[in-house]
Amino acid sequence: MKHAPHPTGLPFQPEQTFFKDPAIDRLLAMVLTLAAELHVTRDRMTTLELTLEKSGVIASADLDGFTPTPDQAAKLTADRQAFVNELMLQTLGTEVSLGAPVDGVDRFDRR
Amino acid sequence: MINDIPNHRPFDAFQAFTLDCKLFWTRQMFPELRRRYTAQMAASGTQPQTSDDVAALIGPDTTTEFFGWFERHMQRMKYSGRHGLAVHYSQYRDQIHEELHAPLPERLLKLDPAFAQPEYYTSIDIHQHPGGVWSDEIAGYVYARGAASTAPMLNKTESLHHRLTAAALSHLGRPARNVADLGCGFGGSSRPFYTDHPEINVVGVDLSEPCLRLAAHRAAEEQATNIQFCQADAANTGLDSAAFDIVTSTMMLHEMPPSHIHQMLKESHRLLAPGGVSIQLDFLVRDDPFKTFMHYGHSARNNEPFMVPLNKMDIQAAHRDAGFDTVEILPFEEFSGALAPEMNAWRFPWTLIIAHKAA
Questions:
Q1: Mind telling me how many Å the CA of B171 is from chain A's nearest CA?
Q2: Is residue A14 part of a domain?
Q3: CB pairs under 8 A between A and B
Q4: CA A68 to chain centre
Q5: Mutual angle of helices B62-80 and B30-44, in 10-degree steps
Q6: Would you say B270 and B247 are in contact if contact means Cβ atoms under 8 Å apart?
Q7: Residues B204-229, mean pLDDT to the nearest whole number
Q8: Listed range (A62-66, B35-39, B250-254, B276-280) with the worst mean pLDDT
């Protein structure tokens, strides 16, 4: 998806950066985009909850006091652990596919 | 009219989120940056004299980096994010078109179908408003909604525009009959004149047709009969000479190059009756290199490049060249307490420039 060209046809300027590494500027943009979406989603959930409560379908207190059955608890725990694991794995900086050797690929060139 | 656009909760939530981030930036990040600057001065034993000196001292500071990033990107998200202003109002394009082209009392709006926009105006999307305030029919709605959160500390019940109106009438020192509001935009700065003073005839002048249409329809909704909105360049309005007691502008000077400001001041002098007053509300920093650093940074971050040359201009000389007598430059209190020493939040360097035409 691309941004639309400017109505004047003039080219856009290079990105403005504020950090020594421009990757941080872009990363922070992704973080704030996610944060804003998270807020919109939380707001939606809250309005959904309030609407359902007003309609008598649920009571907010039931959500706060929700106690899962053993099966439900196991599913919730597994979902949480999978999410955390995937998130925290990124901190290790490990590759997950076999890349080319760092000393090059000449040795595979057998004539 | 603008309130006829349906409520859209995700839009409201998104805009409230970005505004809250901006409030943190205003009330907490800025004071922290100022504290770090003070500490750096003490640690280095230096006393910066210029904006460049300040940049050398705190430019590399991580808080400075975050401060700059947040200012630029909260504004970008406000306009162009997933629930940004431009995105949101484009969904109501048909409704907006219908509203803006509804019949108006004849005198209220004067547009020029052959109007040629100045190049400086169309070449930069000021405020990071995509396409600018002129190129898209929805631009007036986008701009008006955006203006509501530009300066987060402003309390709208103590309107900035009402304060300027009161200052203008006070500095005129005699009853006003005719006021020209240059760069009136969507009419916010004109409104206190024409709604609170039915005895005053007001002419609002702007380049932007989308803004002028919105201004005119808002005035029509209030059944105002003492206002006319005209599409014209503030430097060449086509209005009658010596016809106005007050010529005013709000946040216009910093959006034009110095050459245009000089022409606009000469035009203001021409428009004024003898004894009339020119009163411009804009941004100037003259006394504090840290505030200058902040201001010049804002200029770059928010696509408002003419703030810097305006700040460097000899404003008094420019007014005298245009024929004005006395010229005063005064700090402006945009809300109660804005100028108090303990007010440590970020704010624009609001300044009144008042010049009198000889009687």
A1: 42
A2: no
A3: 56
A4: 26
A5: 160
A6: no
A7: 97
A8: A62-66
User: Can you tell me the distance from the alpha carbon of A77 to that of B163, in angstroms, rounded to the nearest whole number?
Assistant: 59
Please write the tens of the pLDDT for every residue from B42-94: 999 999 999 999 999 999 999 999 999 999 999 999 999 999 999 999 999 99
The alpha-carbon gap from A34 to the nearest alpha carbon of chain B, in Å, equals 11
CB-based contact, B124 to chain A, within 8 Å: no
B136 at interface of A, judged by CB pairs closer than 8 A: yes
Instruction: Tell me the residue type at B123.
Output: S
Q: Tell me: the pLDDT tens digits for B136-162?
A: 999 999 999 999 877 777 765 458 999
Query: In the predicted model, what is the mean pLDDT of chain B?
Result: 94
Rg (CA), chain A: 24
Tens of pLDDT, residues B276-287: 999 999 999 988
Interface residue B320 vs chain A (CB under 8 A): no
Does the residue A79 lie in any domain? Answer: yes
Q: Average pLDDT in the B317-325 region? A: 96
Q: How far apart are CA B211 and CA B205, in angstroms?
A: 10
Instruction: Give the pLDDT band (50/70/90) at residue A95.
Output: confident
Nearest by CB to residue B73, choosing from A7, A29, A44, is A29
**How many structural domains comprise chain A?**
1
Nearest residue of A to residue B297 by CA position? A18
Which one of 3.30.420.10, 3.10.620.30, 3.30.40.10, 3.40.50.150 gives the CATH number of domain B160-287+311-356? 3.40.50.150
What is the token pair recorded at A40? 């919109």
- Return the pLDDT at B157: 47
Burial class (CB in 10 A: 0-12, 13-18, 19+), B165: buried
Min Cα separation B244/chain A (Å): 36
Residue B181 Cα distances to A16, A18, A66, B190, B194, angstroms: 34, 37, 61, 6, 11
Q: What is the token pair recorded at B208? A: 């932007």
Q: Do the chains contact at A36 and B81, CB–CB below 8 Å?
A: yes
Instruction: Say if the Cβ atoms of B122 and A8 lie within 8 Å.
Output: yes
DSSP assignment of B299-342: HHHTT-TTHHHHHHS-HHHHHHHTT-S-EEEEE--SSTTTTSTT
Kindly determine whether residue B82 and residue A8, on different chains, have CB atoms separated by under 8 Å: no
For residue B25, give the DSSP letter: I
Distance from CA of B245 to the nearest CA of A (A): 38
**B262 to B142, B194, B218, B314: CA distances (angstroms):** 30, 28, 32, 11
